[in-house]
Design goal:
Shape: globular
Structural class: alpha+beta
Number of helices: 4
Protein name: CNH domain-containing protein
GO molecular function, one term: guanyl-nucleotide exchange factor activity
Strand order of the largest sheet: 1-3-4-2
Oligomer: single chain
Pfam family, one: CNH
Domain Pleckstrin homology: 4-126
Organism: Rhizopus microsporus
Length: 381
């Protein structure tokens, strides 16, 4: 109430600490031309050109989904930005709200001490929250210096009851041991492929799926015991694949492979099968012992042909699911396929192929867990 007039203030919901990430940006003097005299950090966004003030709560309710809250980027970037800030009167700090779409807010402090105080307080609150509600225990597998920055690790999985692990890196697939019997846990390369972003070991039919440069390949799982020089030729399953998902639905193990465009998406569900090869399929090649060289040549041709044939794949297509929008992620529950799209989360009943419900798009769409989706419907406030 002000002079008899009621005024309402609309505030954005606080950013949960689990989804808060801070880092030091490269300072651009054109963003902030005059020094602020306030102790509260002002912020600049594309939607707030008037340089208003924001007072955010340190807490904030939200789904307890663990995201990366490591602010080591602050320590690494501090040396790079000190030279830029010597000639500037403001000290920027960017806060990122992890999610889709991601929100970036740049704040300006009046001194390095004030900015460091903000970073230390946020870090201490995040560490305290992680100690109260721990979900995972961090166990180092190998030393960080074994992989350089130019060879980035994009994906990590374990298999063989957790005794071995696979790494998807920019230059290929690596395998290593994570077991007390193996003193040397350093990973070594088994496949030489470029831009490997995802791997999956299917132990039920001894198959290894590798997504390299947006092409999905299938290899026998025993390649993890070989060397890059002796790697077999893989079977190409599909091209233009942004990602794939491996899970269980309708008591079946499924591999979901999307084909995405801006207007529509088709998610194909495959079931891993054990293919039995008939050794008597070519008896006419074995009736003459004097044609050994000819048999060897024919066998090589047949082997090369089978390695590139989709019909001999260890994946059998079950069905296709269509959504009239762009798909971002896919998950499976006991009976449903959950597709995160630009319009929200679409739930498709795998028994009837009919969409059941759609959850409206929020800032937390990419972090919704399958269990939360089934147990309750999350609605925006």
């Amino acid at each position: 109430m002000n002079n008899g007039l009621e005024r309402y203030v609309i505030q954005r919901r606080p950013i949960p600490l689990e989804l808060l990430h801070i880092y030091l940006p490269r300072y651009d003097p054109s963003m902030h031309n005059r020094r602020s005299s306030s102790l509260v950090l002002p912020y600049l966004t594309n939607n707030n050109p008037n340089n208003t003030m924001m007072v955010a709560s340190a807490g904030g309710s939200g789904m307890h989904v663990r995201a990366s809250t490591d602010i080591a980027a602050y320590m690494n970037a501090q040396a790079n930005t000190e030279m830029d800030e010597e000639n500037n009167s403001c000290y920027p700090l960017t806060i990122q709200h992890l999610g889709r779409p991601s929100l970036h807010i740049t704040l300006f402090a009046t001194s390095p001490a004030i900015r460091k105080s903000w970073i230390d307080k946020i870090k201490s609150q995040q560490e305290e929250l992680s100690k109260k509600k721990p979900i995972f225990e961090t166990v180092p597998v190998f030393n960080g210096h074994e992989f350089l920055e130019v060879n980035k690790i994009n994906h990590f999985i374990t298999f063989n009851a957790g005794q071995q692990y696979l790494l998807a890196a920019d230059d290929g697939v690596y395998v290593g041991h994570h077991h007390y019997k193996h003193l040397d846990t350093r990973p070594h390369k088994v496949l030489s492929l470029e831009k490997v972003t995802q791997v999956q070991a299917i132990e039920s039919n001894q198959t290894l799926l590798v997504l390299a440069d947006k092409s999905l390949w299938e290899y026998p799982l025993d390649v993890v015991n070989g060397k890059p020089e002796l790697q077999p030729q893989g079977r190409l399953i599909q091209t233009h694949v942004p990602f794939f998902y491996y899970g269980t639905c309708l008591q079946k193990t499924m591999v979901c492979i999307p084909k995405i465009s801006t207007l529509s998406s088709i998610i194909s569900a495959y079931e891993p099968i054990k293919r039995i090869y008939d050794t008597n399929a070519t008896p006419h090649l074995q009736h003459n012992v004097n044609t050994g060289k000819r048999q060897s040549l024919v066998n090589k041709i047949l082997s090369l042909r089978s390695s590139t044939s989709l019909g001999d794949s260890n994946l059998r297509k079950i069905k296709d699911c269509y959504v009239p929008c762009e798909a971002y992620a896919v998950e499976l529950s006991a009976t449903m396929m959950l597709i995160t799209t630009s319009r929200g989360v679409i739930m498709i009943d795998m028994r009837t192929d009919q969409p059941q419900r759609k959850i409206q798009k929020t800032a937390y769409t990419s972090f919704i867990h399958t269990v939360s989706l089934i147990d309750r419907i999350i609605k925006p406030c």
